[in-house]
Amino acid sequence: MKINVISIALLFLFLISCREVESIDCSLVDCAFQTFSITFVDGDGNNLIENGTYTINDIMVSKNGDQLSFNASEDNKILFETAGQQGDNIYEIKLSESRTDVLILDLDRRDSRNECCGPFFDVNNAIYENSSNLVVETDGFITELIVTIQ
Questions:
Q1: How many CB atoms sit inside 10 A of residue 81's CB?
Q2: Is 17 exposed, middle or buried (0-12, 13-18, 19+ CB in 10 A)?
Q3: Exposure string over 28-60, b if 16+ CB within 10 A, otherwise e
Q4: CA 110 → CA 64, 119, 121, 124, distances in Å?
Q5: Stated pTM of the model
Q6: Per-residue pLDDT tens for 112-145?
Q7: Domain architecture of the chain: domains with CATH
Q8: What is the sign, positive or negative, of the torsion defined by CA atoms of 67, 109, 33, 136?
């Protein structure tokens, strides 16, 4: 009899421990978006926006013909949110009326296990105007690209 009571108690504990897990209300989550930061420099390391070679008002960033919104930082970098997918992503960067360059980012989707935010990506490879000679550094949600333009 004691064994039956213990068995029933264990079965009851097992059943109540298997209740459905409540899902997260994503409307209550404030997500940080992954951001790309691009600094344009010349061969001597001078910032080309800071020295007036290019102006923020002339710069446009687009992907697949769709213009992306971006911001300029106080230190003359352009910042835009990731609009990408797994694999090669081609961004057109119009620096002036006479110059539009191509940035290709090979992105690898991270397994973030976050059901509300993301997706987030690692940059496997970056090519700017057919050159892979650029610096790519990631710090948290910001991936910084330093592009040298000759």
A1: 14
A2: exposed
A3: eeeeeebbbbbbbbeeeeebbbeeeebeeeebe
A4: 23, 7, 5, 11
A5: 0.75
A6: 677 788 788 889 999 999 887 788 888 878 899 9
A7: 32-148 (2.60.40)
A8: negative
